[in-house]
Amino acid sequence: MAKYLGDWTGDYRGSALAVLRPASVAEAQALLRLCSELNLGVIPQGGNTGLVSGAIDGNGTGLVVVSLERLNAIRRIDPENFTLQADAGCVLQTIKDASEAEDCLFPLALGAQGSCQIGGNAATNAGGVNVLRYGMARDLILGLEVVLADGELWSGFSGLRKNNSGYDLKQLFIGSEARLASSRVSRSSCSQNRPASRRPISALPRSRQPSRCSTGRAGPAPI
Ligand SMILES: Cc1cc2nc3c(=O)[nH]c(=O)nc-3n(C[C@H](O)[C@H](O)[C@H](O)COP(=O)(O)OP(=O)(O)OC[C@H]3O[C@@H](n4cnc5c(N)ncnc54)[C@H](O)[C@@H]3O)c2cc1C
């Protein structure tokens, strides 16, 4: 259990009643439902790279660690819409590599990208070295599916870029650092891919892409 109880820097050590490692959304729901019924607090853990002991129980308050490492599939890549769907435990580098294989760019980039997970990136609203050009994790996530504390599934899962239907509730979870619901486990983020500038992908001829050429940023032109 040791690897789930310590910060990789060695600065923080914690404890846990148990470490749970769901491999599917259904398992995550069942485990959180059980913890809720037993009145056990849980703490989601991604790649544990956060550096501030947010993913470990440093105070020894008897929490259960829920590691997302087994919930790590890329579900879908859509290079025409510049989107992908991935489980919360998907390592950021895996997402970047999969995007690259489709000649796309997933622009979130940080030192921990070989270990941190997209769910952790969402929970911390990670910025990284490309933040000035492409924005924070908040700006790259189009939709979320979230397992709530009682095991209920909240679906705000969308790949729709122009979505003005009411409140953007997913933003409540992004950057919450698991505080809003300590047992929150996001399953999938549908993240915006922007094509690598060296080789833009589009069904449109180049002459019809003024926004891409003029700003250097990709994505559909504003409507
Ligand atoms: C070398 C290095 C460089 C970094 N550079 C940057 C940088 O440039 N910009 C930046 O913003 N950050 C940076 N970070 C910190 C960065 O925010 C984290 O590394 C990363 O985003 C956290 O992801 P993680 O999967 O490791 O999450 P963890 O460390 O495992 O968890 C972080 C928090 O998120 C929660 N959490 C994790 N997964 C989930 C989930 N699936 N659902 C709900 N809550 C969850 C945890 O409970 C915890 O509160 C850096 C870290 C390192 C080690």
From TrEMBL:
Sequence ranges assigned to domain FAD-binding PCMH-type in this UniProt record: 12-185
Source lineage: Bacteria, Pseudomonadati, Pseudomonadota, Alphaproteobacteria, Hyphomicrobiales
The name this protein goes by in its record: FAD-binding oxidoreductase
InterPro entries assigned: FAD-bd_PCMH, FAD-bd_PCMH-like_sf, FAD-bd_PCMH_sub2, FAD-oxidored/transferase_4, Oxid_FAD_bind_N
Cell cycle found in the keyword field: no
Listed PROSITE patterns: FAD_PCMH (PS51387)
SUPFAM superfamilies, per the entry: FAD-binding/transporter-associated domain-like (SSF56176)
Extent of Low complexity compositional bias: 185-194
Gene3D superfamilies, per database record: 3.30.465.10
Keywords for the protein's UniProt record, in alphabetical order: FAD, Flavoprotein
Region (Disordered): 185-223
Organism: Mesorhizobium album
